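Q: I have 102 residues here and want to know how they pack in 3D. Can you give me a structure?
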Amino acid sequence: NFWLLTTGLGMVFVGGQLIAWRQLHAAGVFLSTNPSSSFFYVFTAAHGLHVLGGVIALLYVAFRSWQKSRTTQSVAAEVAGVYWHFLDGLWIFLLLLFSLGR
């Protein structure tokens, strides 16, 4: 259930990013508008790509045929879990850096 929840939330996040970018575009805020908008676009694009990579990894582990594979599904799931936990740690670090680094 947590696997499905994580995959779904990742997809919702990426979809939300696309909606936010469309709204910014409609409001006339572009990558080259000013340094703040450039930072926002680059920062959220990096985050979105990392989350999309994690979602792809989750889908790969969930739907791949493991019968003839040299790697087991549990090892692949462990690797996907390490990837997601690395992202957790990275974003906690960034949150602290941006909150306390003022």
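Q: Anything worth noting?
A: The helical segments are 2-26, 35-63, 73-100. The CA atoms of residues 22 and 28 lie 10 Å apart.
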